From TrEMBL:
<keyword id="KW-0274">FAD</keyword>
<dbReference type="InterPro" id="IPR033892">
    <property type="entry name" value="FNR_bac"/>
</dbReference>
<keyword id="KW-0560">Oxidoreductase</keyword>
<keyword id="KW-0521">NADP</keyword>
<dbReference type="GO" id="GO:0005737">
    <property type="term" value="C:cytoplasm"/>
</dbReference>
<dbReference type="Pfam" id="PF00970">
    <property type="entry name" value="FAD_binding_6"/>
</dbReference>
<protein>
    <recommendedName>
        <fullName>Flavodoxin/ferredoxin--NADP reductase</fullName>
        <ecNumber>1.18.1.2</ecNumber>
        <ecNumber>1.19.1.1</ecNumber>
    </recommendedName>
</protein>
<dbReference type="Pfam" id="PF00175">
    <property type="entry name" value="NAD_binding_1"/>
</dbReference>
<keyword id="KW-0285">Flavoprotein</keyword>
<dbReference type="InterPro" id="IPR039261">
    <property type="entry name" value="FNR_nucleotide-bd"/>
</dbReference>
<dbReference type="InterPro" id="IPR001709">
    <property type="entry name" value="Flavoprot_Pyr_Nucl_cyt_Rdtase"/>
</dbReference>
<feature type="domain" description="FAD-binding FR-type">
    <location>
        <begin position="2"/>
        <end position="101"/>
    </location>
</feature>
<dbReference type="InterPro" id="IPR001433">
    <property type="entry name" value="OxRdtase_FAD/NAD-bd"/>
</dbReference>
<dbReference type="GO" id="GO:0042167">
    <property type="term" value="P:heme catabolic process"/>
</dbReference>
<keyword id="KW-0547">Nucleotide-binding</keyword>
<dbReference type="GO" id="GO:0034599">
    <property type="term" value="P:cellular response to oxidative stress"/>
</dbReference>
<dbReference type="GO" id="GO:0004324">
    <property type="term" value="F:ferredoxin-NADP+ reductase activity"/>
</dbReference>
């Protein structure tokens, strides 16, 4: 049984009508970058709980979560309605295996995300530890609209901080947007545009691919990487090239 602690909302950023970030103070146990907590609210006497990835570095006590309001969703609209100073419940211990310890050595680590799925990568990169064994890091954030690229300034700061080791790439699917590729991740891998834009090859011999966010994106990309690039899902007992986290 999970232990629950009470947290206090210290800051809210409303990026768009449907995307927002919560900052929370809570007495949680230390988590590993890439993991998630469960957030909960008592709604009509019942605790409704869902998983949300930590965005902050584990070394930062300002806990941060990046959310989208799912229309008709049970919890996300209630979390979107929280105000600074409100309380919510969090699991004391984080969970999940979408962490660097599970990733084998490789030349280029590709961190591909859609929507709020960028969260775990921001936690990993903001902490910036245990990345020496990768020569290159690539962070890709795919969103419907240019204005949904909420963390682009932080991505740009990270790119500067990593001094050439990290390359960032925005992808926007529903409009043309400056400095972004237009389309969807699997199609942009298939037609070579993602690698051309980033300037690195995505091959089984040199790459490991992390996928996070929309489950259909995860499935479609896995399928493509298997068929076109000869890659396989990474398992502890059978090393491969793809590690994924699906948000629903
Ligand atoms: C490991 C893990 C980590 C997650 N991390 C995050 C996170 O950092 N940020 C975040 O916003 N969500 C995250 N989610 C999704 C989150 O747990 C909830 O599913 C989401 O907030 C919807 O909850 P709800 O009660 O509002 O909707 P529900 O009433 O539970 O309705 C669920 C339906 O909404 C749709 N849905 C669920 N999540 C999404 C989504 N993110 N985008 C689009 N449609 C969705 C699906 O169709 C699903 O069947 C994560 C999920 C998992 C499993
Ligand atoms: N983003 C918004 O402005 C907005 C506004 C109101 C409500 N919402 C709600 O919020 C929820 C999540 O929206 P979201 O925009 O964060 O997430 P999303 O629907 O998962 O879209 C994020 C990105 O993933 C892409 N994608 C979707 N399916 C894919 C696939 N099979 N392969 C590759 N890429 C794929 C989308 O491309 P496509 O554009 O081609 O689908 C988009 O670029 C939805 O329930 C939505 O109704 C979103």
């Amino acid at each position: 049984m999970a232990n629950w602690v009470t947290g206090k909302v210290t800051d809210i950023t409303n990026w768009t009508d449907s995307l927002f970030s919560l900052k929370v103070h809570a007495p949680i146990e230390k988590f590993t970058a890439g993991q998630f907590a469960k957030l909960g609210l008592e709604i009509e006497g019942v605790r409704i709980q869902r998983a949300y990835s930590y965005v902050n570095s584990p070394d930062d006590n300002n806990l941060e979560f990046y959310l989208v309001t799912v229309p008709e969703g049970k919890l996300s609209p209630k979390l979107a309605a929280l105000k600074t100073g409100d309380e919510l419940l969090l699991t004391e211990q984080a969970a999940g295996f979408f962490v660097l310890d599970e990733i084998p050595d490789c030349q280029t680590l590709w961190m591909l995300s859609t929507g709020t799925g960028i969260g775990p990568y921001l936690s990993i990169l903001q902490q910036g530890k245990n990345l020496e064994r990768f020569e290159n890091l690539v962070l890709v954030h795919a969103a419907r609209w240019g204005n949904d690229l909420s963390y682009l300034p932080i991505m740009q700061n990270l790119e500067e901080k990593f001094q050439g080791k990290l390359r960032i790439q925005a992808v926007v699917s529903r409009e043309k947007w400056p400095n972004s590729l237009m389309g969807r991740i699997p199609a942009l891998i298939e037609n070579g545009k993602l690698e051309a834009s980033v300037g690195l090859p995505m091959q089984a011999e040199n790459s490991h691919i992390m996928l996070c966010g929309n489950p259909q994106m995860v499935r479609d990309t896995q399928q493509l990487l298997k068929e076109q690039r000869g890659m396989a899902k990474h398992l502890r007992r059978k090393p491969g090239h793809i590690t994924s986290e699906q948000y629903w």
